[in-house]
Amino acid sequence: MTPLTECGPFIYKCYAAADDTVAVLAYQERNNTAPQILHLKFRQYDLPLSIRLMERLLLTGTMGSRSAASKQLYDTLDTFRRILSVYQENVLLRISEHLTGNENGTSPKEVFGPEFLLQLSNIVSEFLRAIKGFFEFISGCVYKLPGFEKMQPPRGQIPVMESLLEDISAFSNHQKKTLHILDKWRKQQAKQLAQQQRN
Questions:
Q1: What is the enclosing helix (H) or strand (E) of 64?
Q2: Per-residue buried b or exposed e for 16-32, using 16+ beta carbons within 10 Å of the residue's own CB
Q3: Is pLDDT larger for residue 160 or for residue 128?
Q4: What does the alpha-carbon distance between residue 18 and residue 38 come to, in Å, rounded to a whole number?
């Protein structure tokens, strides 16, 4: 089966050698607002990826035998799972709800002012720094890098750990895209405010 392809926040599959799917999706991305793009991105990519990542972390936590030497690795995985759970709940789910408007009928534009977008960008940036640290630590343990030799997981658990690293990398890349969209949205708002002040 031909793999799915990504265009901006959209995902698609080519059915013909020469179709204009990319052009159509690029046009749609240009003409959608930042709230629409973020909401679609969270629902299509970030939330499913975070759920899969959480499942992998739970799986590694319940896998059979582990050596006393690899205790630090499993403690780190448990810490990462808890941080991811908070991020999923307080950023991905809560922001996704705000993007569609809340029960009081407040529009995303009213909720997502420049200051709030900056605060949100800082939270995503902080999470990205944390995820980078976890990725490097887990990689070191799995691939027995210098300084991590005694923390390697049992041989039978390495394939699951490698899949976990792939999911962490994919999820991290999507958070970088989120950061880019938030920054673009904040700049658009600043430009609109400046224009309103001139008028």
A1: none
A2: eeeeeeeeebeebeeeb
A3: 128
A4: 29
**Is residue 133's pLDDT more than 60?**
yes
- In the predicted structure, residue 112 carries a pLDDT above the cut 90: no
Q: For 146-192, how does the pLDDT look when each residue is reduced to its tens digit (9 = 90+)? A: 988 888 888 888 898 999 999 999 999 999 999 999 998 888 888 87
- 15-24, 107-116, 160-169: which has the highest mean pLDDT? 160-169
DSSP 12: E
Q: Which residues sit opposite 10 in a β-bridge?
A: 7
**Is there a contact between 138 and 161 (Cβ–Cβ < 8 Å)?**
yes
Distance CA 168, CA 159 (A): 14
Residue for token pair 């039978």: 156
Do β-strands 5-7 and 10-12 pair in parallel, antiparallel, or remain unpaired?
antiparallel
**Nearest-10 Cα torsion for 88, 91, 93, 95:** -170
Identify the three-state secondary structure at position 163.
helix
CA dist 57 and 93 (Å) reads: 19
Across the strands, what pairs with 199?
Answer: none
CA distances from 169 to 26, 79, 175 (A): 25, 17, 10
